[in-house]
Amino acid sequence: MAGGEPPRRDRSRLPAARRRRQIVEVTTRLIAERGFRGLSMQDVADGCGLTVPGLLHHVGSKDGLLVAVLEHRDAEDARTLAAELGRPDDLAGVDLRRMCSALVRRNASQPEIVRLFTVLQAESLAPSHPAHDYFAARQDRTVAVFTDLAKDVTDTPGSLARQITAMMDGLQTQWLRSPGTTDLVREWEAAAGSLFAGLPA
């Protein structure tokens, strides 16, 4: 056919939970490639075999879609981290350095997801961005968790928590720019040696 075939619509009815997961996965890939500003609802719909009205039936709006992607990723990471640390119910009292290492290993295994969050985190510095409040609250939560875990190892837990957060973010950005020459886990362990130097093991 001249002009190419129109996108095929998936007429099968997936259960709502499976359809939402499919939407989140397709959107995650597209945002990682193009950023949120370059995201087209039509492209998401095409990737899921839906019409745009069908897509909106599941997510409500483009902003709702973004929040769904972010929340899904955080929930998946929390479950994986808790399982690796052997603390499925509560991370309170976990060794801070061990938790940081587990986080970095998790991120090193999913560069597309880390790229997605890095792009959105930068874009959302603009107060008008739909994820601005989400990332501000997420940063506060992350620093709060690190601060709580650092109370037993330093007299300045808030400062250490902010340094850890900044170091992780910075190393991840360098890793994303040079994935073939930067080993994220190795670089983090080297940095952690300095950050935790002199602190109780």
From TrEMBL:
Q: Which residues form the HTH tetR-type domain?
A: 17-77
Q: What superkingdom heads the lineage?
A: Bacteria
PROSITE patterns linked to this entry = HTH_TETR_2 (PS50977)
The record's section on InterPro entries has: Homeodomain-like_sf, HTH-type_TetR-like_transc_reg, HTH_TetR, Tet_transcr_reg_TetR-rel_C_sf
Q: Which UniProt keywords apply?
A: DNA-binding, Transcription, Transcription regulation
Pfam families, alphabetized: TetR_N
UniProt DNA-binding residue ranges = 40-59
Query: Per the database entry, which stretches of residues form a coiled coil?
Result: none
Name of the molecule in the record: AcrR family transcriptional regulator
- What lineage does UniProt assign to this protein's organism? Bacteria, Bacillati, Actinomycetota, Actinomycetes, Pseudonocardiales
